[in-house]
Amino acid sequence: MLDINIGDVTAAYEGAVGVIWEMLMGEQIHVGGERETDILAEVAGVNAGTRVLDVLSGLGGPARHLAHTYGATVTGLDATGRMVNEAVLRTERAGLHDRAIFRFGNALDMPFRSGIFDVVWGQDSWCYVTDKDRLIRECRRVAVPGGTIAFTDWIETGAMSDDERHSLNAFMLFPYMETLPGYARLLRRHGFAVRKCEDLSEDFASHMRRYRDALDGGLKGRIVERFGADTFRAMERGIGLWVDAADEGKVGRGRFVGRKV
What we know:
This protein has helices at about 5-15, 15-25, 35-45, 60-70, 80-95, 130-140, 160-170, 180-190, 200-215, 220-225, 230-245; strands spanning about 50-55, 75-80, 100-105, 115-125, 145-155, 190-200, 250-260. Helix 4 (about 60-70) links the parallel strand 1 and strand 2 (about 75-80). It is built from eleven helices and seven strands.
């Protein structure tokens, strides 16, 4: 595990990192945008009246989509003040503030009573969490009996050297990445029956190549003008490392769904 903590991640997402990833991915800031949100919502059984907790909710894009498209009631939780404030503003502008609210807080010590959410949700963000065992335990605590956990995340999928692992995680500010079977074990350990444990790595590699192409194309001038050439070069190097690792089958992405038993 790298010596990366919640303060490092929030500092980055208060500044250039959060802005650049939104440029690359859109306001949902996860692979696949609304299409992937719809797939996860379908397998999680989200519908009108479903009480969803979006853990590490970022700018609130998925929360607004779930509220608008499915009629769910969504609470977003995030530890980055800029993200929470921006999520609130965008949700108010969208007229969804009665169905999507956002709280500032730590995913490892959630500010919620036990057993109040039908679905505990996450999209490509739990890789930033230092203690994923405790995270899954907290998710179980706040889920209703028989409730659902549904999330996607970036994962380690193949053998790599310590130097490779360090470079990939350090660029993204991940303390470490879980594996597909690792997440399945955590879910079972904390009382979830695993319904889905899917490897999405082939699709992940194609997305990483698109982010690299977008970075080197139309976004280069905007990033250099706003954040400087050094920031652009660091992003270019880092995403290049991830493209290579994804193409070589060393990193990828998984989809996980479980039921609290």
